[in-house]
Amino acid sequence: MHSFAEDAKECGDVIKVSGNAHPMRLQPLAIRRCLNNLIENALRYGEKADIVIGETDDEVVISIRDAGPGIPEDKLEAVFTPFYRLEASRSRHTGGIGLGLSIARDMARKQGGDITLKNAPEGGLVATLVLPKQY
Fold first, then answer.
1. pLDDT digits over 9-35, tens only?
2. How far apart (Å, rounded) are the C-alpha atoms in residues 65 and 43?
3. Which of these, 93, 83, 89, 76, lies nearest to 128 by C-alpha position?
4. Global pTM?
5. What DSSP string runs through the chain?
6. Given this structure, which CATH class describes domain 2-132?
7. d(CA 8, CA 47)
8. CB within 8 Å of 42: residues ≥ 6 apart
9. How many CA atoms within 13 Å lie on the side-chain side of 130?
């Protein structure tokens, strides 16, 4: 995660990473794609990504918070539907085609985890990826 953030910073993106977790056995390409989609969304819609990595005895938790407008409460689950977009624009500058979150959740679930979204009380959106530790 830290090296991924360093690569993004070199491209001029505003990313901060804090915390660590022990290494896990996962499908690396699937998790990288999942995290990439979540971070790209944070940067696209919220202009920055604050990433916090933590763990319990059973799972690793990665939270990605942006500084954007958030998502209406009644749409927090709908945005995981393939091709669902909050904005009607077809411009790739203002948004993709509505597959990023669907793919990210699918990748997380194939690893036994999940992704949830919530609006932060002080603004922005928090995407939380929870992955079970597999030994």
1. 788 888 999 999 988 888 989 999 999
2. 10
3. 76
4. 0.88
5. -HHHHHHHHHTT--EEEEE--------HHHHHHHHHHHHHHHHHHHS-EEEEEEE-SSEEEEEEE--S----GGGTTGGGSTT--SS----TTT---S-HHHHHHHHHHHTT-EEEEEE-TTSSEEEEEEEE---
6. alpha beta
7. 12
8. 48, 49, 64, 65, 66, 68, 125, 127
9. 9
